[in-house]
Design brief:
The protein is 0% helix and 48% strand. It has no helices and ten strands. The strands form two sheets. A six-stranded mixed sheet has the order 2-10-9-4-5-6, with no helix packed on it. A four-stranded antiparallel sheet has the order 1-3-8-7, with no helix packed on it.
């Protein structure tokens, strides 16, 4: 299965973006799906995850602002990002939420929060 992240862009602080992760196959092949981000000079971090049964996880810095969801029929996972802050600036990637199930990371999608 290949994953393609899209939907990034330049947004002002306080703005919103919705990222999409389209899978070439069934997302049910993954135990869980995750959105990750990597800022310049920093390690990649898991931002949000969603399990097959719908259980969600969020890193503390995005709780209350980001929402992860999945459309199983479309084999797509979304990340709704509201109240964006400059510190949210990063390249965002989607992949399995389980390291043993990782597939190719691809190029990700750039999110830049700046006035």
């Amino acid at each position: 299965v290949q994953l393609q992240a899209s939907g990034g862009g330049l947004v002002q602080p306080g703005g919103s973006l919705r990222l999409s992760c389209a899978a070439s196959g069934s997302i049910f092949s993954f135990t869980a799906m995750g959105w990750y981000r990597q800022a310049p000079g920093k390690q990649r971090e898991l931002v949000a995850g969603i399990a097959k049964i719908g259980t969600t996880y969020y890193v503390d810095s995005v709780k209350g602002r980001f929402t992860i969801s999945r459309d199983n029929a479309k084999n797509t996972v979304y990340l709704q990002m509201n109240s964006l802050k400059p510190e949210d600036t990063a390249v965002y990637y989607c992949n399995s939420g389980i390291s043993s199930e990782y597939v190719d990371w691809g190029q990700g999608t750039q999110v830049t929060v700046s006035s």
